[in-house]
Amino acid sequence: MAKKNDQEEVIVDVKEVYTKTEMFVDRNRKTLTIVIGVAAVILIGFYAYRLLVVKPKEDKATEEIWKAEQYFEIDSLDLALVGDGLYPGLEDIVSDYSGTKAADRANYELGIISRDRGNFEEAIAYFEQADLDDDVVSVLSITNIGDCYVELGNTEEAVKHFEKAISKSKGTDAESFTAPMVMFKAAIAYMDLDQKDKAAKYFEKIVENYPDAQVKPRAERYAAYLGHKL
After folding, report:
1. Helix residue ranges, H only, 87-130
2. Which of 11, 14, 138, 174 has the highest count of CB atoms within 10 angstroms of its CB?
């Protein structure tokens, strides 16, 4: 009998809740209609903006950048930077098409050029603007920032970026390529900071987890060396 009463109470509660919901909708029908209408306008506006503004800008940027990237690939860096008079350079792409994937690639390539020319602070600024979604290049961009900080003598900041790059590489299809490479850089930086235990940890991880890594033989030698020193 008690069980039946419990069931009846549940049924009453459900009906009560349903009735209250209906009453709330009735009392606030106008407000709810406005809210739903505003949400629909925002959603339509978002998709219209993507279709009418973002996509054409993205397409135009892709069309414009190809020659500059071709110059970059063949090391005609001055033409890559400023263009050839017919096609814009990477600097123009960054300026005119900010927020596009092409501009992100241009920032990365400008970072490489600045780094190779020894303009490390400028390179860092470019790499930081390169919002890349490629598993390899996104990790390399962060790693390059670390490399630049090493060149600037700021090893502590370099290590932070190497650690960030290692974390970003985990679980990606490119992990077996990117992770050991960055771990090796981080380990060397930790050695410079006289934090040999952290360095040894990364050398050992490379040896144990990435047997096909190009840096594995060197990591083995360092791991053996530090094993005697710790």
Report:
1. 90-96, 101-116, 120-129
2. 138
